[in-house]
Amino acid sequence: MTRDEVLRRINYLRAELERHNFLYYVESKPVISDYDYDMLMKELETLEKEYPEFYDPSSPTQRIGNDINVEFQQKEHQYPMLSLGNTYNEGELRDFDARVRKILEEPFKYVCELKYDGVSISLTYENGQLKHAVTRGDGIKGDDVTANVKTIRSIPLKLKGTDFPDYFEIRGEIFMPHKVFELLNDEKRRNGEQPFANPRNATSGTVKLQNSSLVAKRKLDCFLYYLIGDKLPTDSHYQNLELARGWGFKIPQYIEYHDSIDEVFQFINYWDKERNNLSFDIDGIVIKVDSLAQQRKLGFTAKTPRWAISYKFQAERAETRLLSIDYQVGRTGAVTPVANLDPVQLAGTTVKRASLHNADQIGMLDVRLNDWVYVEKAGEIIPQIIGVNLERRPSDSFPVKFIESCPECGASLIRNEGEAAYYCPNDNGCPPQITGKIEHFISRAAMNINAGEATADLLFRAGLVHNASDLYRLTKDQILNLERFADKSAENLIKSIDDSKKVPFSRVLFALGIRYVGETVAKKLAAHFKTMEALMTAPFDELIEVEEIGERIAQSVMAYFADERNLAIIEELRQSGVQLSMQENAEDKLSEKLTGLNIIISGNFERLSREEIKRLIELHGGKNVSSISPKTNYLLAGEKIGPTKLEKAKKLNIPIISENEFFKMIE
Ligand code: IVH
Q1: What is the number of helices (H) and of strands (E) in the chain?
Q2: How far is CA 479 from CA 449, 656, 665, in A?
Q3: CATH code linked to domain 586-666
Q4: In this predicted structure, what is the pLDDT of residue 147?
Q5: pLDDT at residue 417 above 90?
Q6: Which of 43, 300, 424, 456 is in the most buried spot, having the most CB atoms within 10 Å?
Q7: Ligand 1 within 6 A of 308 CB?
Q8: Is the pLDDT of residue 586 over 60?
């Protein structure tokens, strides 16, 4: 080939490769195979190496990156890179709208866009060629990451067409699609490396890699959303983006005009639901005034434009600073570490504290003071720390050392083999354990005494109640002396305590707060042993015979009854009249709704079997009878009811009820 022919071939290859790049990465419509693409690229690489005089910084070969390690140069932004004001609720957004309307005093249009969660980038184009790619940095100057950004295939190195300004900037967000992120983390895990916590971190870690050939492998992508320059083609933000699309930029299709704030809310609500179906992360919506003239009229505050704002979706996860760790002692003496956080918005509330569960969890996460941590709402209410952003870890940090003595009473903590929690062993002298036990005793599922946490605390601090049995010795006068109690409330408390003497044995057993004896275990134990005596004296072997009772529970039960102080409490409860044995039938009763009613059932039922229906009748205090008599109160009729029964019921004027009506009665 002559040099001319070589140059022509090189130009052809460059144009072809860029065309395929665009089809593949911007339009998602590839027309050649990866193999054919690679072949074209190889040929171009070889030619460029042989003829270095034809070097072109916009050549598609630049996208492969190179192995030269570089320190990034800082570069000043020609237009400062501001951030957006954030809003989190409808009211704040309506305030924004009112401000805009007040300043403009004329019709205007909003453009709604998604708020891409990645790393913002500013690209400068001169005569259609990518010149610089600079990160936000401090907004005034950022890192020149041009070599890295050139490896992002959806960013044009050379623009298409001719109608672009000689010089302009375009800004956007570099991001890592979910699929790429998953693959990258899989690989990291395989190599025993710490995976990235989220696609945004993976993106920012990648953009800052000092070796662009590594960046090329990570397959980042980039959406562009903001054109700036002195000579932009139109006065409309939206129109300018449309034109930029024609120059080869990846302008997201999720962009809409809206005339009113109510329409904007429809857009927001739609994407709040739909965002989970996107292949990349967004964290909100950006709302911009469309006209550039109007944007100028609105201007900027020190930090943010007045013509745009972001509406942030309620985050399910947030990143914040761990300020300190508190240790809380529960009723069983278990010590729970609780993180104090720099307050952060999470799913609609401000989160200041999060559970760290136990020493193992702290060790596993290796959370340290002053770390930036990820907080998630677990289930509904209690936020949890689920990870650490190691990139932001202060260099002088050190692992957390779990406390060794109880923060409440000073006793040395113990840790039983095979258990994650540390315990304060001072169960009868450690204040939160004492009040915790009382709170548990009076709780709804236990003795159902009508008094809250605060009351247990008050009673303890007034020296009136040290354990559950003390409750039954309280007098109205003693209670009246307490803060916040008046005649009526004192009377109610006394009555409620008195009523608790009718609470069945299984719940009393649960109320004692024996470790590992929850509601279900208490029921099983009560049903098996029937009386407190039998349970107290039961040998280990008999305990573990009971359904669902294993060695751990059996040991805990035996340990509880081996303690003299517990025996004394039980004795006092007995003398106060608390139920310490199973009452016939009283045990599992669900309600008294059918008490005194004789019910006969006939036919087949939809929701439950006949046996189950019979049991339900008894559990609600009713009696299941087998033949109809004048004393029968109801005939509960299912499908295919026997004709003789039906006739007899009609004759005796006995009301016939359906399965549904029956369930309504016991609801
Ligand atoms: S416009 C002057 N549009 O959100 C306003 N920003 O806090 C220029 N972002 O730093 C930004 N999606 O990184 C704009 N559709 C979008 C965006 C967007 C994400 C990011 C951007 C910016 C931050 C604002």
Answers
A1: 24, 21
A2: 14, 52, 39
A3: 3.40.50.10190
A4: 93
A5: no
A6: 424
A7: yes
A8: no
Homologous superfamily, domain 317-392: Nucleic acid-binding proteins (2.40.50.140)
Digit-coded pLDDT (tens) for 357-391: 899 889 989 999 999 999 987 544 678 898 999 98
Q: What is the CATH number that goes with domain 76-312?
A: 3.30.470.30
**Ligand 1 centroid to 115 CA: how many Å?**
6
223 lines ligand 1 (CB under 6 A): no
Residue nearest to atom 1 of ligand 1 (CA): 226
Sheet with 119-126: list strands edge to edge. Answer: 129-135, 119-126, 167-175, 221-228
The CB density around residue 540, as the number of other CB atoms within 10 Å, is: 12
CATH says 431-576 is which class?
Answer: mainly alpha
For the chain, domain boundaries? 3-64, 76-312, 317-392, 431-576, 586-666
116 lines ligand 1 (CB under 6 A): yes
Condensed to tens digits (0 to 9), the pLDDT of residues 105-124 reads: 999 999 999 999 999 999 99
216: left (phi over 0), alpha (psi -120 to 50) or beta: alpha
How does the average pLDDT of the chain come out, rounded? 91
Distance (Å, whole) CA 83 – CA 527: 66
Mean pLDDT for the stretch of residues 20-47:
89
Q: CB of 385 within 8 A of CB of 373? A: yes
Average pLDDT over residues 618-625: 84
Q: Is 351 in the pocket of ligand 1 (CB under 6 A)?
A: no
